[in-house]
Amino acid sequence: MDADLADFTKLIEECQKIVVFTGAGISTESGIPDFRSPGGLWEKNRPIDFSEFISSEEARRESWRRKFAMDSVLSKAEPNKGHMAISSLYKSGRVTAVITQNIDGLHQSSGIEDEDVIEVHGNTTYAKCLDCHSRYELDYIREIFADNETLPICKQCNGIVKTATISFGQAMPVNEMRQAELAAYDSDLFIAIGSSLVVYPAAEIPLLAKQRGARLVILNREPTPLDEYADLVLRREIGDTLDFVTKT
Ligand code: NAD
Ligand code: ZN
Protein backbone atom coordinates (compact mmCIF):
# COMPACT_ATOMS: atom_id res chain seq x y z
CA MET A 1 0.00 0.00 0.00
CA ASP A 2 1.29 3.52 -0.75
CA ALA A 3 2.61 5.31 2.33
CA ASP A 4 0.06 8.16 2.25
CA LEU A 5 -2.84 5.71 2.06
CA ALA A 6 -1.40 3.64 4.90
CA ASP A 7 -0.97 6.77 7.04
CA PHE A 8 -4.51 7.93 6.27
CA THR A 9 -5.99 4.51 7.13
CA LYS A 10 -4.07 4.46 10.41
CA LEU A 11 -5.23 7.96 11.41
CA ILE A 12 -8.85 7.03 10.71
CA GLU A 13 -8.47 3.89 12.84
CA GLU A 14 -6.83 5.76 15.72
CA CYS A 15 -9.28 8.67 15.94
CA GLN A 16 -12.76 8.72 17.43
CA LYS A 17 -14.00 12.26 16.83
CA ILE A 18 -13.52 12.79 13.15
CA VAL A 19 -14.87 15.95 11.55
CA VAL A 20 -15.08 16.07 7.78
CA PHE A 21 -14.99 19.36 5.89
CA THR A 22 -15.99 19.25 2.23
CA GLY A 23 -15.90 21.53 -0.78
CA ALA A 24 -17.18 21.33 -4.33
CA GLY A 25 -14.53 18.69 -5.21
CA ILE A 26 -16.41 15.92 -3.44
CA SER A 27 -19.41 16.41 -5.72
CA THR A 28 -17.62 16.51 -9.10
CA GLU A 29 -17.86 12.69 -9.28
CA SER A 30 -21.63 13.16 -8.97
CA GLY A 31 -21.56 15.32 -12.10
CA ILE A 32 -21.70 18.74 -10.41
CA PRO A 33 -18.88 20.97 -11.67
CA ASP A 34 -16.69 22.71 -9.08
CA PHE A 35 -15.57 26.33 -9.31
CA ARG A 36 -11.84 26.25 -9.83
CA SER A 37 -10.98 23.12 -11.82
CA PRO A 38 -10.32 23.58 -15.56
CA GLY A 39 -13.74 23.76 -17.22
CA GLY A 40 -15.32 24.48 -13.80
CA LEU A 41 -18.08 27.00 -13.20
CA TRP A 42 -15.65 29.84 -12.59
CA GLU A 43 -14.45 29.74 -16.20
CA LYS A 44 -17.98 29.61 -17.56
CA ASN A 45 -19.74 32.04 -15.21
CA ARG A 46 -18.09 34.64 -13.10
CA PRO A 47 -19.89 34.49 -9.71
CA ILE A 48 -22.38 37.29 -9.06
CA ASP A 49 -21.44 38.85 -5.78
CA PHE A 50 -23.90 39.97 -3.17
CA SER A 51 -23.66 43.72 -3.77
CA GLU A 52 -24.29 43.20 -7.47
CA PHE A 53 -27.30 40.99 -6.73
CA ILE A 54 -28.76 43.73 -4.52
CA SER A 55 -28.05 46.66 -6.81
CA SER A 56 -28.87 45.24 -10.23
CA GLU A 57 -32.11 43.73 -11.49
CA GLU A 58 -30.24 42.23 -14.41
CA ALA A 59 -27.82 40.50 -12.02
CA ARG A 60 -30.79 39.08 -10.12
CA ARG A 61 -32.32 37.84 -13.36
CA GLU A 62 -29.04 36.24 -14.44
CA SER A 63 -28.71 34.67 -11.03
CA TRP A 64 -32.18 33.03 -11.25
CA ARG A 65 -31.47 31.94 -14.84
CA ARG A 66 -28.30 30.17 -13.67
CA LYS A 67 -30.08 28.74 -10.67
CA PHE A 68 -32.83 27.13 -12.73
CA ALA A 69 -30.31 25.89 -15.35
CA MET A 70 -28.19 24.33 -12.59
CA ASP A 71 -31.25 22.67 -11.05
CA SER A 72 -31.54 20.27 -13.97
CA VAL A 73 -28.04 18.97 -13.02
CA LEU A 74 -28.58 19.15 -9.25
CA SER A 75 -31.90 17.38 -9.21
CA LYS A 76 -30.39 14.35 -10.99
CA ALA A 77 -27.19 14.21 -8.92
CA GLU A 78 -26.70 11.35 -6.49
CA PRO A 79 -24.14 10.79 -3.75
CA ASN A 80 -20.95 9.13 -5.04
CA LYS A 81 -18.38 6.76 -3.50
CA GLY A 82 -16.81 9.63 -1.54
CA HIS A 83 -20.09 10.71 0.07
CA MET A 84 -20.94 7.07 0.84
CA ALA A 85 -17.55 6.40 2.48
CA ILE A 86 -18.05 9.40 4.79
CA SER A 87 -21.57 8.22 5.54
CA SER A 88 -20.30 4.76 6.51
CA LEU A 89 -17.79 6.30 8.95
CA TYR A 90 -20.61 8.45 10.32
CA LYS A 91 -22.85 5.43 10.81
CA SER A 92 -20.06 3.66 12.67
CA GLY A 93 -20.06 6.62 15.09
CA ARG A 94 -16.58 7.91 14.26
CA VAL A 95 -17.52 10.92 12.16
CA THR A 96 -19.29 13.34 14.47
CA ALA A 97 -20.07 16.15 12.01
CA VAL A 98 -19.73 17.10 8.37
CA ILE A 99 -19.05 20.76 7.68
CA THR A 100 -19.72 21.54 4.05
CA GLN A 101 -19.29 24.49 1.73
CA ASN A 102 -21.56 22.70 -0.71
CA ILE A 103 -25.13 23.65 -1.28
CA ASP A 104 -26.16 20.45 -3.07
CA GLY A 105 -27.56 18.44 -0.14
CA LEU A 106 -25.68 15.26 -1.16
CA HIS A 107 -24.33 14.53 2.34
CA GLN A 108 -27.90 14.42 3.61
CA SER A 109 -28.89 12.17 0.67
CA SER A 110 -26.03 9.82 1.60
CA GLY A 111 -27.63 9.16 4.98
CA ILE A 112 -26.17 11.80 7.29
CA GLU A 113 -28.78 13.39 9.56
CA ASP A 114 -29.64 17.04 8.84
CA GLU A 115 -28.47 18.13 12.28
CA ASP A 116 -25.00 16.66 11.67
CA VAL A 117 -24.45 18.45 8.35
CA ILE A 118 -23.32 22.03 8.92
CA GLU A 119 -23.89 24.06 5.76
CA VAL A 120 -21.66 27.12 6.03
CA HIS A 121 -22.60 28.42 2.57
CA GLY A 122 -26.31 27.74 2.89
CA ASN A 123 -28.66 25.65 0.84
CA THR A 124 -29.94 26.04 -2.69
CA THR A 125 -33.15 24.04 -2.34
CA TYR A 126 -35.26 26.97 -1.14
CA ALA A 127 -35.23 30.80 -1.07
CA LYS A 128 -35.61 33.53 1.54
CA CYS A 129 -36.52 37.21 1.75
CA LEU A 130 -33.32 39.10 2.53
CA ASP A 131 -35.20 41.53 4.81
CA CYS A 132 -37.77 39.56 6.83
CA HIS A 133 -36.37 36.06 6.14
CA SER A 134 -39.74 34.65 5.01
CA ARG A 135 -39.20 31.34 3.25
CA TYR A 136 -40.23 30.73 -0.38
CA GLU A 137 -40.26 27.44 -2.23
CA LEU A 138 -38.53 27.24 -5.61
CA ASP A 139 -41.58 25.96 -7.47
CA TYR A 140 -43.37 29.19 -6.59
CA ILE A 141 -40.45 31.31 -7.81
CA ARG A 142 -40.04 29.24 -10.96
CA GLU A 143 -43.66 29.95 -11.82
CA ILE A 144 -43.26 33.72 -11.35
CA PHE A 145 -39.96 33.78 -13.24
CA ALA A 146 -41.44 31.80 -16.14
CA ASP A 147 -43.64 34.84 -16.80
CA ASN A 148 -41.17 36.98 -18.74
CA GLU A 149 -38.41 36.59 -16.12
CA THR A 150 -40.36 38.45 -13.43
CA LEU A 151 -38.27 38.80 -10.27
CA PRO A 152 -39.74 37.41 -7.03
CA ILE A 153 -40.58 39.99 -4.36
CA CYS A 154 -41.48 39.20 -0.74
CA LYS A 155 -45.26 39.06 -0.12
CA GLN A 156 -44.79 40.25 3.47
CA CYS A 157 -42.43 43.19 3.08
CA ASN A 158 -41.63 43.66 -0.65
CA GLY A 159 -38.02 42.67 0.08
CA ILE A 160 -35.66 40.98 -2.37
CA VAL A 161 -35.94 37.18 -2.47
CA LYS A 162 -32.75 35.14 -2.97
CA THR A 163 -31.82 31.45 -2.75
CA ALA A 164 -30.81 30.50 0.79
CA THR A 165 -27.15 30.28 -0.24
CA ILE A 166 -24.33 32.59 0.82
CA SER A 167 -22.88 34.59 -2.08
CA PHE A 168 -19.45 36.13 -2.24
CA GLY A 169 -19.64 39.35 -0.23
CA GLN A 170 -22.63 38.18 1.84
CA ALA A 171 -22.41 37.75 5.63
CA MET A 172 -21.79 34.19 6.82
CA PRO A 173 -24.58 32.46 8.76
CA VAL A 174 -23.78 33.09 12.44
CA ASN A 175 -25.23 29.87 13.89
CA GLU A 176 -23.64 27.57 11.33
CA MET A 177 -20.23 29.22 11.68
CA ARG A 178 -20.43 28.85 15.46
CA GLN A 179 -21.46 25.19 15.14
CA ALA A 180 -18.61 24.59 12.69
CA GLU A 181 -16.10 26.15 15.09
CA LEU A 182 -17.36 24.05 18.01
CA ALA A 183 -17.18 20.87 15.91
CA ALA A 184 -13.63 21.75 14.82
CA TYR A 185 -12.55 22.44 18.43
CA ASP A 186 -13.96 19.11 19.55
CA SER A 187 -12.36 16.95 16.83
CA ASP A 188 -9.30 14.71 17.10
CA LEU A 189 -9.03 14.30 13.32
CA PHE A 190 -10.11 16.94 10.81
CA ILE A 191 -10.27 15.89 7.16
CA ALA A 192 -10.60 18.60 4.49
CA ILE A 193 -11.80 17.08 1.22
CA GLY A 194 -12.22 18.59 -2.25
CA SER A 195 -11.76 22.21 -1.34
CA SER A 196 -9.25 24.65 -2.79
CA LEU A 197 -9.29 26.19 0.74
CA VAL A 198 -9.12 29.73 -0.60
CA VAL A 199 -12.67 30.85 0.25
CA TYR A 200 -12.63 32.66 3.59
CA PRO A 201 -13.81 32.51 6.32
CA ALA A 202 -14.71 28.86 5.67
CA ALA A 203 -11.07 27.98 4.99
CA GLU A 204 -10.17 29.13 8.51
CA ILE A 205 -12.06 26.22 10.07
CA PRO A 206 -9.42 23.52 9.36
CA LEU A 207 -6.83 25.75 11.00
CA LEU A 208 -8.96 26.17 14.12
CA ALA A 209 -9.08 22.39 14.46
CA LYS A 210 -5.33 22.13 14.01
CA GLN A 211 -4.65 24.89 16.55
CA ARG A 212 -6.76 23.02 19.12
CA GLY A 213 -4.75 19.85 18.70
CA ALA A 214 -6.61 17.85 16.03
CA ARG A 215 -4.61 16.18 13.33
CA LEU A 216 -5.27 17.68 9.93
CA VAL A 217 -5.55 15.70 6.69
CA ILE A 218 -6.10 17.37 3.30
CA LEU A 219 -7.38 15.28 0.39
CA ASN A 220 -7.44 17.28 -2.84
CA ARG A 221 -6.22 16.80 -6.38
CA GLU A 222 -4.41 20.15 -6.36
CA PRO A 223 -2.21 21.88 -3.78
CA THR A 224 -3.94 24.17 -1.27
CA PRO A 225 -2.58 27.09 0.79
CA LEU A 226 -3.14 25.04 3.98
CA ASP A 227 -1.03 22.05 2.89
CA GLU A 228 1.94 23.27 4.93
CA TYR A 229 -0.11 23.04 8.15
CA ALA A 230 -1.43 19.53 7.48
CA ASP A 231 -0.16 16.35 9.12
CA LEU A 232 -0.93 14.51 5.90
CA VAL A 233 -1.67 15.69 2.35
CA LEU A 234 -3.10 13.29 -0.25
CA ARG A 235 -3.11 14.56 -3.84
CA ARG A 236 -5.53 11.95 -5.05
CA GLU A 237 -8.98 11.39 -6.48
CA ILE A 238 -11.57 11.60 -3.74
CA GLY A 239 -14.00 8.72 -4.40
CA ASP A 240 -11.47 5.93 -4.82
CA THR A 241 -9.31 7.19 -1.96
CA LEU A 242 -12.12 7.41 0.60
CA ASP A 243 -13.56 4.12 -0.57
CA PHE A 244 -10.17 2.47 -0.14
CA VAL A 245 -9.31 3.86 3.29
CA THR A 246 -12.72 3.16 4.77
CA LYS A 247 -12.83 -0.43 3.53
CA THR A 248 -9.27 -1.40 4.44
P1 NAD B 1 -13.29 24.86 -5.47
O1 NAD B 1 -13.95 24.70 -6.79
O2 NAD B 1 -12.60 26.13 -5.16
O3 NAD B 1 -12.24 23.69 -5.23
C1 NAD B 1 -12.55 22.35 -5.49
C2 NAD B 1 -11.25 21.56 -5.36
O4 NAD B 1 -11.56 20.18 -5.51
C3 NAD B 1 -10.22 21.92 -6.44
O5 NAD B 1 -9.00 22.25 -5.82
C4 NAD B 1 -10.10 20.63 -7.28
O6 NAD B 1 -8.77 20.37 -7.67
C5 NAD B 1 -10.58 19.56 -6.32
N1 NAD B 1 -11.25 18.42 -6.95
C6 NAD B 1 -12.32 18.45 -7.79
N2 NAD B 1 -12.72 17.19 -8.08
C7 NAD B 1 -11.88 16.36 -7.43
C8 NAD B 1 -11.77 14.94 -7.32
N3 NAD B 1 -12.63 14.13 -7.94
N4 NAD B 1 -10.77 14.42 -6.56
C9 NAD B 1 -9.87 15.24 -5.92
N5 NAD B 1 -9.94 16.58 -5.96
C10 NAD B 1 -10.93 17.14 -6.71
O7 NAD B 1 -14.40 24.52 -4.39
P2 NAD B 1 -14.61 25.05 -2.91
O8 NAD B 1 -13.32 25.12 -2.19
O9 NAD B 1 -15.72 24.26 -2.37
O10 NAD B 1 -15.11 26.56 -3.14
C11 NAD B 1 -16.11 26.85 -4.07
C12 NAD B 1 -17.39 27.47 -3.49
O11 NAD B 1 -18.43 27.31 -4.44
C13 NAD B 1 -17.85 26.72 -2.27
O12 NAD B 1 -17.79 27.60 -1.24
C14 NAD B 1 -19.28 26.29 -2.56
O13 NAD B 1 -20.16 27.07 -1.76
C15 NAD B 1 -19.59 26.68 -3.97
N6 NAD B 1 -19.91 25.53 -4.88
C16 NAD B 1 -20.67 24.50 -4.45
C17 NAD B 1 -20.92 23.42 -5.29
C18 NAD B 1 -21.75 22.27 -4.77
O14 NAD B 1 -22.58 22.49 -3.89
N7 NAD B 1 -21.53 21.05 -5.25
C19 NAD B 1 -20.40 23.40 -6.59
C20 NAD B 1 -19.63 24.52 -7.02
C21 NAD B 1 -19.39 25.57 -6.15
ZN1 ZN C 1 -39.82 39.97 3.44
Largest sheet: 6 strands, parallel
Q: Number of domains in the coordinates?
A: 2
Strand order, largest beta sheet: 3-2-1-7-8-9
Shape: elongated
Number of helices: 10
Note the run of SSEs as H and E: HEHHHHEHEEEHEHEHEEH
The CATH topology of the largest domain turns out to be: Rossmann fold
CATH classification class of the largest domain: Alpha Beta
CATH H level of the largest domain: which superfamily?
TPP-binding domain
N-C termini distance? 10 Å
How much strand? Answer: 15-25%
User: What is the residue-averaged pLDDT?
Assistant: 95
Ligands bound, unique: nicotinamide-adenine-dinucleotide, zinc ion
> Could you give the count of β-strands?
9
Alpha carbon gyration radius? 19 Å
Keywords:
single chain, six-stranded parallel β-sheet, Rossmann fold, 38% helix, 248 residues, binds nicotinamide-adenine-dinucleotide, SIR2/SIRT2 'Small Domain'
Tell me what you see in this structure.
This protein has ten helices and nine strands. The chain is elongated, with a radius of gyration of 19 Å. It folds into two domains: 1-30 and 78-120 and 172-248, TPP-binding domain (Rossmann fold, 3-Layer(aba) Sandwich), CATH 3.40.50; 33-76 and 122-165, SIR2/SIRT2 'Small Domain' (2-Layer Sandwich), CATH 3.30.1600. 38% of the residues lie in helices and 17% in strands. A six-stranded parallel β-sheet has the order 3-2-1-7-8-9, with helices on both faces. The protein has 248 residues and is α/β, with parallel strands linked by helices. Bound molecules: nicotinamide-adenine-dinucleotide (NAD) and zinc ion. Residues 23-25, 27-29, 32, 34-37, 40-41, 101-104, 121, 194-196, 199, 220-222, 237-238 line the site of nicotinamide-adenine-dinucleotide.
